[in-house]
Design a protein that fits this description.
The protein has helices at residues 123-126, 133-139, 153-165, 359-367, 435-440; strands at residues 2-4, 9-11, 21-22, 31-35, 37-38, 60-61, 64-65, 70-71, 82-99, 110-116, 149-150, 172-180, 190-194, 200-209, 213-214, 216-226, 244-245, 254-258, 282-283, 309-328, 339-348, 372-381, 387-391, 407-417, 421-422, 424-431, 442-444. By secondary structure, the chain is mainly beta. Helices cover 9% and strands 36% of the residues.
Length: 447
């Protein structure tokens, strides 16, 4: 049984997604489990969020014209096409973005989107029994369909039954009812939808009515984290939280403000794995006020000026003491920062209510007026394409605990001198949980 959520509205302009994470991104572990038909192009292309759709008018394959998206054949039998995607992280969804780029005479004329949360039962593993799912994931961790193939009617019936069986333990929710799409010309390709739902999801189903193609599919939202899950606990305790990477995207860490993001956005600093290239990081433009001749301090070796750029990262979960910081300048070889300094942003524990409401978090993130900044890492020299680790236990970090007084570290502000790029910033600490949050264990990008 499918439940229809509150009315989703189509937006005329691109929404501000700076404080949200795309949950449908292959680079952050989203993967396709099933697709009814991939004759012209495979469904994994929908999740290629880091690359704009491309088009070569002269590129053809055995099946016909090569397009960068998921495209099924022209349907000549009963039914419609659909695919199922497992999100990299369980989360709530605020916006959908649908791009039909270059699908001008063959776009899907109508689509709908459904979602389900299978985080608290065994049916999530049952979805790996969808026809072709195991083979798909063996070809690639993020899934890899085969162009020119389609499922048989019997396989589609089996897949539909498996999805229906999930309804016994969780509800399918219609997040976007059947909605027309425009063709993929430059002026009509992008579609934005606001989803007024506070529900969390682990899987999304995209339906084509009846067939066709879409280039990219994004779901902008917030990650939900269950800190009582086994992966976050020490094995010798019922609920003793171990030190975690609190800035990680997996725990809801994200960039919320910066002085400059000319070549890359701060949220990239929170992504999993090492950066794959310079575009997978935060990089600023060259500072226009840099001196004509650079001078260094003979005692410290640091450049003798205070010009800098900065960004603010919001920790997915607050802490009382940062114990380790990792900085990575991977791929930044001629444009790494000369040095870096980090401050810890402190807020009152009175704001940690333990509910899933993020209204206060949104207001605070937009202004940061209620945040007190204290030193965490003194200005220190960096180098090209390298990893730097700083430990509290070695005296390389300032101890924020004495400055708290019923407050917690919820943000870090990263200063780079005078400009340049970082690939990753990782903040390690033990999470602080209010009593109500600890009892529930479920946090939405921290409470």
């Amino acid at each position: 049984m499918t439940t229809t959520s509150a009315a989703t509205t189509m937006l005329k302009e691109k929404p501000n997604t700076d404080n949200y994470i795309n949950l449908l991104d292959a680079d952050t572990n989203a993967r396709v489990l099933f697709a009814t038909d991939e004759f012209f192009a495979t469904a994994e292309n929908l999740l290629n969020a880091s690359n704009e759709p491309r088009f070569d008018p002269n590129e053809y394959c055995e099946q016909g014209k090569v397009l960068d998206g998921w495209e099924s054949r022209r349907r000549r039998d009963a039914g419609h096409d659909w695919c199922l995607v497992e999100l990299g992280y369980r989360g709530t969804i605020e916006f959908f973005e649908i791009d039909t780029a270059f699908f001008t005479g063959n776009h899907a004329p109508r689509i709908s989107i459904e979602g389900i949360d299978l985080s608290n039962n065994n049916h999530k593993d049952a979805l790996l029994n969808l026809p072709g799912s195991q083979e798909r994931l063996q070809r690639s961790n993020s899934g890899a369909g085969v162009r020119g193939t389609c499922m048989t009617k019997q396989e589609i019936d089996v897949a539909s039954q498996i999805l229906n069986d999930c309804s016994a333990v969780a509800k399918w929710h219609t997040l976007l009812p059947m909605t027309p799409l425009r063709p993929g010309y430059e002026e009509t390709r992008l579609h934005y939808f606001h989803v007024p739902s506070e529900l969390s999801f682990t899987h999304l189903r995209l339906n084509y009515f009846p067939d066709g193609g879409v280039a990219r599919w994004k779901a902008w939202g917030r990650i939900c984290v269950d800190l009582k899950s086994k992966k976050f606990q020490n094995s010798n305790s019922n609920f003793e939280i171990k030190m975690l990477e609190l800035s990680s995207m997996e725990l809801g860490g994200r960039g919320i403000q910066c002085s400059n993001q000319h070549y890359g956005v701060p949220s990239n600093l929170c992504r999993p794995n090492r950066g794959k290239d310079m575009g997978d990081g935060w990089e600023t433009a060259r500072h226009p006020d840099r001196p004509p001749i650079v001078k260094t301090d003979p005692k410290t070796g640091l450049v003798m000026n205070d010009l800098s750029d900065w960004c603010v990262l919001k920790l997915g979960v607050p802490t009382q003491r940062v114990e380790r910081v990792l900085l990575d300048t991977a791929h930044f070889k001629g444009n790494y920062p000369e040095s870096c300094m980090i401050e810890a942003g402190i807020v009152s524990t009175d704001n940690l209510s333990g509910s899933t409401s993020t209204n206060h978090d949104e207001a605070l993130s937009s202004s940061l007026d209620g945040v007190e900044w204290v030193p965490l890492l003194q200005r220190t020299k960096l180098a090209a394409d390298s990893i730097f680790v700083y430990e509290l236990i070695k005296g390389e970090l300032e101890d924020s605990l004495s400055a708290l007084n019923n407050r917690v570290v919820s943000y870090v502000r990263v200063h780079i001198f005078p400009d340049g790029g970082l690939s990753r910033v990782r903040i390690y600490a033990k999470p602080f949980l209010s009593s109500s949050a600890a009892a529930g264990g479920d946090l939405m990008s921290y409470l």
